[in-house]
Amino acid sequence: MAVLALIIGIIICNDSYFNVYFLAILSTFLICASGNVINDYFDKNIDKLNKPNRPIPSGKVSEKNVLIFFLLLSFFGILFSLFVSTQFFFMAVFNFFISFIYSWKFKGKFFIGNLMDSWLGASSFIASGLIRGSIYNFSYPLLILSLIAFFGTLSREIFKDIEDIKGDKSANIKTIPIVLGQKKAKLIGSIFGIFGCLIIIIPYYNTVFNNYYLIGAIPGILIALYAISNTNPEKTQKNLKISMLFVLIGFLISSISKI
Fold this sequence. Notes:
Elements: H1 2-13, H2 21-42, H3 44-50, H4 63-82, H5 86-106, H6 112-128, H7 140-163, H8 165-170, H9 176-180, H10 182-205, H11 214-229, H12 233-257
Helix pairs in contact: 1-2, 1-6, 1-12, 2-4, 2-5, 4-5, 5-6, 6-7, 7-10, 7-12, 10-11, 11-12
């Protein structure tokens, strides 16, 4: 998803002559991967209850090898970013730092962890505007995409917290459903989801994108609305992810049609 977001941002920026896209995409992929790895490492005790078949709690991979894998992914992800641009490198280091402290200390902090994860979900679009080395390439469409990704991720993360409530309680983690209850958490997650759907409409209403955008936007909105009306939090958060993917496809098709 992060790589797709970066590619769409690159197309929107319309920098076809620039030659460091591969390094930017590879760097994004590796840093996201390292964030997922370290998150699984710190979640190993919670996953024993929530998802015991995952590699670490099931014993399929050792904790030592997990840390080695994390360090390798992080090193090469940051190294490749250095050859893109100085601004892109700083964004890569910042996101690496955010993903690490999120997994280490802030994942269980009330709402703060959700905001940090939502930033990581939105930052790929911002990063695409930094590939040429300046924030000037961060355009209005990228801003809209960043907001959609931010609120979509925020909604999905709250529903994911509802899904993981059993393991999170055992680890004394203070997520929104644990502090406020599942009903209020579902309401909050639904509000952010609906807000994200409203933002999806803006690019078409403002004629930023053409009718091709609707190919992804309409299914994306319908899937998101279906997701937040579902009583199963696991299905909800998965469907929200699918919804965001459809919206990204809509942006991609519309952007390509203008080239």
